[in-house]
Amino acid sequence: MQKVLILTALLVIFSASQTMDPAPPVWSPSFYVAYDETFIKDGHSYTFNGQFFYDAINRRQRADKITGRFDPTCSSILPNVTTRCQHLVAD
Fold first, then answer.
1. pLDDT per residue as tens digits for the range 46-72
2. Domain positions in the chain
3. CB neighbours of 13 closer than 8 A, spacing ≥ 6?
4. Three-class SS string for the chain?
5. How far apart are CA 83 and CA 19, in angstroms?
6. How many angstroms separate the CA atoms of 34 and 73, rounded?
């Protein structure tokens, strides 16, 4: 009888732990990351470097790209031009 009670208690604990939702991920209030971006066009692969800055406290973010040639926003301003590009979002 004692084994049945222990097994039942373990099953209850295990079941309860499986139904609890994990905490959602939380970003740091501010951070910086360097990244590589690969773009494929007409079978050719192009890799570019960039940097992303995030600052939730001051409500702003910035993405710097070594070239904006294949970026939809950058190339809408200077089409088909390989030049530095910066996306800035601020409130």
1. 888 899 999 999 999 999 988 877 777
2. 28-90
3. none
4. CHHHHHHHHHHHHHHHHHHCCCCCCCCCCEEEEEEEEEEEECCEEEEEEEEEEEECCCCEEEEEECCCCCCHHHHHHCCCCCCCEEEEEEC
5. 51
6. 19
